[in-house]
């Protein structure tokens, strides 16, 4: 099961790269907005993040040696941010360009989520 867990972790990183990459690629564009990469990356992050937390909680996988339990407050904050990012991405895909506010919010929240994951 560790192999499957690690595959899900890799997909989680790919989703992160998709959201942040979709944000960064538009930095110099005058028509900033939510692109499909950002939406699909947000959905990938949401689903794989739930699996990454759920599988160890069920006792099926061990994320790393010595793991005992998650910091549920941290996981809750990250989940809330990811849900907001996903909702903003859905809203942004339905609105016409430019969407500078949505684009900036998704980028800022995604980068904040990275900081929380690494520094908390």
Structure, explained:
- The protein has 120 residues and is mostly helical.
- The protein has one domain.
- Helix content is 73%, strand content 0%.
- Helix 1 runs antiparallel to helix 2 (36-57).
- The chain is elongated.
- The two termini are 27 Å apart.
Order of helices and strands: HHHH
- Summed over residues and divided by their number, the pLDDT gives a mean of 90
Which sheet architecture does the biggest sheet show?
Answer: none
As a whole number of angstroms, the C-alpha radius of gyration is 15 Å
Provide the descriptors you would attach to this structure in a database record:
120 residues; mainly alpha; 4 helices; elongated
Concise overview:
By secondary structure, the chain is an all-alpha fold.
Describe the SSE topology:
Blueprint: H1 2-24, H2 36-57, H3 72-94, H4 100-119
Helix pairs in contact: 1-2, 1-4, 2-3, 3-4
